[in-house]
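stage 2 :: seqdesign
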C-alpha cells in the first residue's frame, strides 16, 4: 500500500501556478497534525452581519462580561473570543486603510456595551480621526469623557487612568486580593469596580508628535505591566505598527494581535510575528494571535450595519435613562 504525501512547501511552491492555471487564490497553507490545511479564497465573499453572528452568542453577564466575540473562525465557523482575562490583557489591531480596523473596534465597543452595565464596564474611546467612525456612539452611556479627539485631552485621560490604576492597587492590597476579579467577588454590587477598556483608534497618527509619543509610551508602559490586575485593558489600532510609531516596549505590552490585511510581508512580520497577513482579503478578514492560543486563528469579523448600530446605541441610552439610580 502506498500513501500520497503532501507537504506545505510543495503547495507553497505551486502557489502562483494554482492562481494562473486554476484560478485558485491560496491564502494560507498550514501544517496541522496529520493534515495540510489550505485556505482558498471563494469567488464571491459573503458579508457576515453582526445580528446573525450574535444570535449564537449567549454570554453569561450577571457580573459583567470580559469575553468579547470578535470574529467567526474560518476553520469551523465557531465564534472567536477576545478575553483580557484568559488572553493577554492588551491588544494591538493592525491593518492597512480599509482593512476593517474601525469596524472591528465597533464590534468590540458594542460587545462591551451590550454585555455590561455602566457599573460593570466603562470605555475610554480615543480617535484622532475626529470620531468620524464613531459618531453613532455619541451618548453611549458606557463612554467615559465622550469621544476623545484631542491630544491634550487624551494625555490627560490616560494620566487619570494611571492614577486610577494605582488607587486600585491600594484597594487590592487593603483587601488582600491579587486582582479586581477576586475583589469584585468580595464586594457588594455598589462597591464593585468597573472594568476599564481603553480603545484607541489610529494610534500611530499621533505618535508622530514627540510630546504625545513620549507621554503615551511612558503611561502605557506603566499601565502595561500592572493593568490586568487592576481591571484595565488597552486596545490600540494602527495601520503599520513600525518601530518609529510604536516603540518595542509598547508593542511588547500589547500581547494579543488582531491583524487584518496589511500592506506587505514586513508589516505582517511586525504585527503578527510572521508573514501571511498581506494575503488576507481585507474587509474584516482576520489573522489572530492570542496569548494562550498556540496557533494563528483565521476568521471573519462581522459587519456592523449603521442602522443596527444606531438602534442598539439608542436602546442602551434609553435603558440607562430608565435604570433606577
Ligand atoms: N467585517 C467587515 N465585513 C464587511 N465589510 C467590511 C468589514 N470591515 C470593513 N468592511 C468594509 O470596509 C470599509 C472600511 O472599513 P474600516 O473603516 O473599518 O477600515 P479601517 O481599517 O478602519 O480603515 P482606515 O485605516 O482608513 O480607518 C467599511 O466601510 C466596509 O465597507
Ligand atoms: Mg479606521
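stage 2 :: out
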Amino acid at each position: 500500500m502506498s500513501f500520497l504525501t503532501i507537504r506545505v512547501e510543495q503547495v507553497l511552491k505551486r502557489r502562483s501556478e494554482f492562481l494562473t492555471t486554476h484560478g485558485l487564490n491560496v491564502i494560507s497553507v498550514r501544517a496541522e497534525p496529520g493534515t495540510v490545511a489550505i485556505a482558498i479564497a471563494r469567488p464571491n465573499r459573503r458579508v457576515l452581519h453582526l445580528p446573525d453572528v450574535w444570535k449564537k452568542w449567549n454570554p453569561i453577564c450577571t457580573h459583567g462580561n470580559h469575553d468579547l466575540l470578535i470574529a467567526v473562525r474560518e476553520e469551523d465557523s465557531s465564534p472567536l473570543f477576545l478575553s483580557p482575562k484568559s488572553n493577554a490583557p492588551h491588544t494591538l489591531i493592525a491593518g492597512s486603510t480599509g482593512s476593517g480596523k474601525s469596524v472591528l473596534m465597533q464590534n468590540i465597543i458594542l460587545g462591551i456595551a451590550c454585555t455590561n452595565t455602566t457599573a460593570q464596564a466603562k470605555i475610554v474611546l480615543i480617535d484622532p480621526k475626529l470620531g468620524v467612525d464613531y459618531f453613532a456612539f455619541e451618548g453611549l452611556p458606557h463612554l467615559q469623557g465622550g469621544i476623545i479627539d484631542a491630544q491634550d485631552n487624551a494625555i490627560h485621560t490616560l494620566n487619570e487612568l494611571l492614577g486610577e490604576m494605582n488607587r486600585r492597587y491600594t484597594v487590592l492590597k487593603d483587601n488582600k486580593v491579587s486582582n479586581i476579579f477576586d475583589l469584585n467577588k468580595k464586594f457588594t454590587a455598589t462597591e464593585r469596580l468597573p472594568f476599564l477598556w481603553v480603545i484607541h483608534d489610529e494610534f500611530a497618527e499621533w505618535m508622530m508628535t514627540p510630546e504625545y509619543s513620549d507621554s503615551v509610551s511612558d503611561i502605557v508602559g506603566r499601565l502595561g505591566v500592572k493593568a490586568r490586575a487592576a481591571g484595565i485593558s488597552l486596545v490600540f489600532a494602527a495601520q503599520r505598527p513600525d518601530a518609529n510609531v510604536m516603540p518595542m516596549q509598547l508593542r511588547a505590552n500589547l500581547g494579543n494581535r488582531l491583524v487584518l490585511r496589511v500592506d506587505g510581508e514586513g508589516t505582517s512580520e511586525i504585527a503578527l510575528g510572521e508573514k501571511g497577513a498581506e494575503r488576507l482579503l481585507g474587509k474584516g478578514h482576520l489573522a489572530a494571535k492570542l496569548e494562550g492560543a498556540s496557533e494563528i486563528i483565521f476568521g471573519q469579523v462581522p459587519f456592523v450595519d449603521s442602522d443596527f448600530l444606531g438602534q442598539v446605541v439608542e436602546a442602551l441610552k434609553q435603558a440607562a435613562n430608565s435604570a433606577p439610580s
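stage 3 :: structure notes
- The chain has eleven helices and twelve strands.
- Residues 103 and 246 are 22 Å apart (CA to CA).
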